[in-house]
Write a sequence for this structure.
């Protein structure tokens, strides 16, 4: 399934073979916020002064007395003694400065044309502040306060932003779960975090069809006695059952709530949110971010990496349920007073030109999306973007997985008209903000490389002994603390240390990615070094999928691997030993995983086999399975308990192929 690049194919091929580099266009560089290369030297000579200069742009109720306390690594304290509120920084201060009528979000419904005026809402800073304060008062009225955890499981609606900021206003910790995850995944994340309240919607619209959310949530609420209330946004008018005393409709509760809510002044190190992400075990990790440092990190990176100016219309196409949504739809853009777009639906609904229509409609100037989406658009063909005037675009961004040069060049030529710089931004849920990325007015880009660390950030590549590799491939680490770094794994402090800070010492953050550094010092991310696979930019743990499969009584054993995939970057293949007959089990198991975890985890292939290749001590050899799937030479298999198994698995893999 080679993506086509009709029309421009010839041009792209030429570019691909010249290994061209792209300096910032002259006009762009002249006008860029960051266009003095000494910014790197200054920031790296005195990182604390650099980050402090960004923190000072925020509004503090009490100033901080120390920039960084790194006396007990990896326990970092940033902006010690300072007090502030994230919602005040995202909303009140802009309204107070006279920007109340400025649009914070142009919200575009999936079915915008059918909804009339309601389908395209311009939510101003004043309106978002009103919604946020009212929701914060609803939370307080049902007994949610500082330090309590609130779950948020919503479609892409302005209410999702207000729900997050409403939590921040009163010091409650939000725990957002991506709307595409299953109710079972929500249950697990609510249980791990002891959530007190859950915000959801009656249903979410998918390709014109309402998919029930509240009815699915009802099934888990009974198993979550600590969740005392459920607030329901009425998105689709599906009239879900409401339990008296427990469930409230968002619009009713907000209409009755007081419009003003005094913000809780939080310590700089008080938690702002937790966000679960997959690790190398079956149990997701609750990444904890705090207030002052996180806001500083996202403000600085959003301003400089996206060169954000007052007249920009910025659109990050991620979902709010991922860290990209947290940092670059909600906190970064709002702290910077940006005008953004939020689009509710799929890029190809009702047609493949939906995104380009939105860019034209709102005059989007900065567009940020994931390589997997770029590859899908590339496959759908150039005729869709060509139908629209995309001349408002001036900067393009990519995030979530390595972008292949062909997709990079297509993005640049077909979407960016050859004139827009591309910022390929490498970072993680744990880093909170962009770590390695070009600055568009300064950095010469190379297709496929995230280029160099952001000013103040220090990244290195180490070998297994911890020696630095100046040029070549190895293990990527970050060797200096930064303000938006994760502070902990929620309720799993030991696991935090073990996962990230044990390998090379307590002051060296182990990223979990392998990378290569070239002769110019540019970083090229190669992929994960752990059992995490990246499907369409979504992190999934092979262990999580395996334990889900074996929870099905028809499965005796399962081994899950990631294989390269043209469209999704990686795809999931599961090898399963059935309990009893494996007849017709493939489809059933694919659906089972989709239902238990979410559609994003649905394996591309299930291979039913009688046995799996194991070492003499009984460990499944996943590496061998990866070689089988890749059709590679298998080498020495004599260390296996039963070498014959391999031939059987090879045959099954070939027989059951599509
Ligand atoms: C991968 C998403 C290459 C990487 C912001 C990382 C990338 C993981 C890039 C984090 C990029 C993210 N180039 N790989 N530009 N961006 N990754 O936590 O493997 O969902 O460790 O954060 O995605 O995924 P997460």
């Amino acid at each position: 399934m080679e993506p086509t690049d009709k029309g421009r194919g010839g041009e792209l091929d030429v570019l691909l073979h010249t290994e061209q580099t792209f300096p910032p266009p002259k006009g762009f560089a002249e006008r860029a916020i960051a266009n003095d290369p000494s910014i790197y030297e200054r920031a790296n000579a005195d990182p604390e002064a650099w980050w402090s200069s960004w923190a000072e742009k925020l509004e503090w109720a009490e100033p901080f007395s120390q920039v960084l306390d790194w006396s007990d690594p990896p326990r970092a304290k940033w902006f010690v003694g300072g007090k502030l509120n994230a919602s005040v920084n995202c909303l009140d201060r802009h309204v107070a400065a006279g920007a109340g009528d400025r649009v914070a979000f142009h919200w575009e419904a999936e079915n915008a044309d059918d909804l009339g005026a309601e389908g395209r809402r311009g939510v101003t800073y004043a309106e978002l502040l009103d919604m946020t304060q009212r929701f914060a008062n609803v939370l307080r009225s049902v007994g949610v306060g500082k330090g309590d955890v609130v779950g948020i499981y919503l479609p892409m609606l302005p209410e999702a932003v207000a729900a997050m900021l409403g939590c921040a206003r009163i010091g409650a910790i939000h725990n957002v779960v991506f709307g595409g995850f299953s109710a079972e995944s929500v249950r697990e994340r609510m249980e791990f975090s002891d959530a007190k309240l859950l915000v959801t919607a009656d249903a979410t619209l998918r390709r014109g069809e309402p998919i029930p959310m509240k009815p699915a949530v009802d099934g888990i609420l009974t198993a979550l006695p600590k969740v005392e209330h459920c607030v329901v946004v009425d998105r689709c008018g599906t009239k879900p059952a409401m339990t008296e005393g427990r469930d409230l409709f968002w619009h009713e509760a907000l209409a009755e709530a007081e419009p003003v809510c005094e913000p809780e002044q939080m310590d700089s190190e008080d938690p702002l949110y937790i966000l679960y992400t997959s690790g190398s075990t079956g149990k997701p990790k609750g990444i904890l971010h705090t207030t002052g440092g996180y806001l500083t990190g996202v403000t600085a990176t959003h301003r400089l990496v996206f060169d954000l100016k007052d007249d920009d219309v910025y659109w990050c196409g991620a979902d709010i349920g991922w860290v990209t949504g947290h940092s670059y739809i909600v906190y970064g853009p709002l702290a910077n007073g940006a005008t953004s777009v939020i689009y509710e639906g799929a890029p190809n609904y009702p047609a493949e030109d939906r995104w380009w229509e939105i860019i034209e409609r709102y005059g989007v100037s900065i567009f940020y999306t994931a390589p997997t989406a770029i590859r899908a658009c590339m496959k759908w063909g150039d005729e869709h973007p060509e139908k629209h005037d995309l001349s408002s675009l001036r900067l393009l961004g990519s995030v979530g997985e390595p972008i292949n040069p062909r997709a990079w060049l297509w993005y640049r030529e077909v979407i960016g008209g050859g004139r827009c710089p591309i910022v390929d931004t490498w970072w993680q849920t744990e880093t909170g903000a962009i770590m390695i990325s070009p600055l568009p007015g300064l950095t010469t880009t190379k297709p496929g490389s995230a280029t160099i660390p952001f000013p103040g950030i220090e990244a290195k590549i180490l070998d297994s002994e911890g020696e630095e590799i100046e040029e070549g491939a190895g293990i990527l680490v970050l060797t200096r603390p930064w303000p938006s770094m994760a502070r902990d794994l929620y309720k799993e402090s030991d696991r935090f240390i073990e996962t990230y800070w044990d390998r090379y010492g307590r002051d060296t953050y182990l990223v979990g990615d392998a990378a290569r550094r070239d002769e110019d010092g540019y970083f090229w991310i190669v992929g994960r070094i752990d059992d995490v696979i990246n499907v369409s930019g979504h992190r999934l743990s092979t262990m999580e999928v395996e334990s889900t499969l074996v929870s099905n009584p028809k499965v005796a054993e399962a081994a899950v691997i990631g294989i390269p995939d043209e469209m999704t970057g990686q795809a999931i293949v599961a090898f399963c030993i059935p309990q009893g007959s494996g007849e017709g089990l493939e489809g059933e198991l694919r659906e089972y995983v989709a239902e238990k975890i979410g559609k994003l985890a649905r394996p591309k292939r299930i291979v039913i086999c009688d046995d799996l290749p194991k070492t003499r001590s009984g460990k499944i050899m996943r590496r061998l399975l990866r070689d089988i799937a890749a059709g590679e030479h298998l080498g020495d298999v004599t260390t296996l308990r039963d070498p014959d198994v391999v031939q059987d698995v090879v045959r099954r893999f070939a027989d059951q192929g599509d």
In short: Residues 277, 322-324, 399-402, 424-429, 450, 512-513, 525, 528, 534, 539 surround WTA (CB under 6 Å). Residues 531-656 form a domain with the GMP Synthetase; Chain A, domain 3 fold (CATH 3.30.300.30). The two ends are 13 Å apart (CA to CA). The chain has a mean pLDDT of 94.
